[in-house]
């Protein structure tokens, strides 16, 4: 089975031989408060944009400190480019990896987050949370060392608020898997969200369930 395609998660073992494989990630490490950092305008002006520490501090000035156990995800607007592979990877030659241009996270930002906050996942609506021109993948390496899992090709981030959602990223329990496709979704308190969302009732609150997954066709 193809592991790293469409909306999927990276297990820490993807870049760390002693990191958790898919079957080893505790289920309580696959759900947490959503933190959505909007850099759409910056990414529109610079496809190689990388989220900075200032972007994180600006988010916290508006919404408060990033909560423990957060699912920290970049919203660059990149999901609008799917399914055109050339647009997604920002290139005219999809076979030339050195020509890729898409936004990601800056390694200095990730180092700061690891030192100062406690997150479960790092994520992006682009193909990788390392930016397109990366050849050493420092964000993957830094996060995998801390058993922080990753989310790539996330969709529909405009439909959930920057703060206040709960995101579930329960991946398949594949033995020794380094990642895998998943049905990613967010639960948001009902406050007049898009009518196409699914409303579910709980004992004390109405929640909107919003899918964050691209429609993907797997290769045989």
Automatic annotation (TrEMBL):
Residues spanning the membrane: 197-215
SUPFAM superfamilies linked to this entry: Putative cyclase
Pfam families: Cyclase
Assigned keywords, A-Z: Membrane, Transmembrane, Transmembrane helix
Gene Ontology biological-process entries: L-tryptophan catabolic process to kynurenine
InterPro entries membership: KFase/CYL, KFase_sf
Keyword rRNA processing found: no
GO MF annotation list: arylformamidase activity
Tree of life domain: Eukaryota
Record's keyword annotation contains Disulfide bond: no
Family from the record: Belongs to the Cyclase 1 superfamily.
Identification of the protein by name: Kynurenine formamidase
